[in-house]
Amino acid sequence: MEKNDKPAPQLNGLVETALFVEDLSRAAAFYEQVLGLNKVKASDTGCVFRVGNQRYLLIVSRKAAHAPNKTASGDVLPPCALPHHDGRGPGHIAFGVSKESLDSWRARLTKDHVDLLSEITWESGARSLYFRDPDGYMIELATPGIWEPR
Hints:
The chain is an alpha+beta fold.
């Protein structure tokens, strides 16, 4: 790749990320009931959850991830997954939470029988809780300052 002399236009943040799942209804229930995400769209191939202002988590059936998808207007989206990629493996996603809510999150996860894998206090003072979703993805709840001190 050649070096470009012009600076890249600024990105405004991450809009969406997608996870491939075995059992769509089981995964949707976890993200809706345990993490309290608001489902904004659902179909037999996947569903979309609002995570924040213009931020979305897509849960996609592993099978559907290999097929093109049509939009409501008839446009065709390419498959999410490459033919040789099954979307399995040690994926990771982190959600931001307030420092004040960490104890409430720990209690909620315990109440919902979610095994906490680890709790980390970073050198910046930020803290993280780690656990897995029903498909084995490692989920992190991170307080502000994890990458850059606040």
